[in-house]
Amino acid sequence: MVTRHPPGRHQKHWPQRKLNRVPPVVAIGVINADNAAAVVRSGVDSIAVVSCLYDCSNPYDTALRLAAICNSHSYF
Fold first, then answer.
1. pLDDT band at residue 24, thresholds of 50, 70 and 90?
2. Are 30 and 38 in contact (CB under 8 A)?
């Protein structure tokens, strides 16, 4: 069995199938409509954009543009 902690310290056993899962990678911070495509191409699973939408003059159009960027680079 594979343990998460060193022997003798609150050992918890994890099934091998759970260890094979890779958690999603989310890019956070300084992402905007100008650099979103490069961020998505880097291989992240998703992006988080907050300041980009708050700081723009038209959040709706910016959100549509960001969604289009993400959808055009989708690997699914």
1. confident
2. no
- With respect to residue 72, please indicate whether it lies within any of the assigned structural domains: yes
Domain housing 55: 43-76
Tokens 């992402």 correspond to 31
Residue in the structure block whose two tokens are 């918890």: 12
> Can you give the pTM of this predicted structure?
0.65
Give the SS3 label for residue 72. Answer: helix
Burial 26-53 (b: 16+ CB within 10 A, else e): ebeeebebeebeebbeeebeebebeebe
39 to 24, 26, 33: CA distances (angstroms): 15, 10, 10
* pLDDT score recorded for residue 27: 95
Q: In total, how many domains does the chain have? A: 1
Has residue 24 been placed in a domain?
no
Strand partners, 48: 28
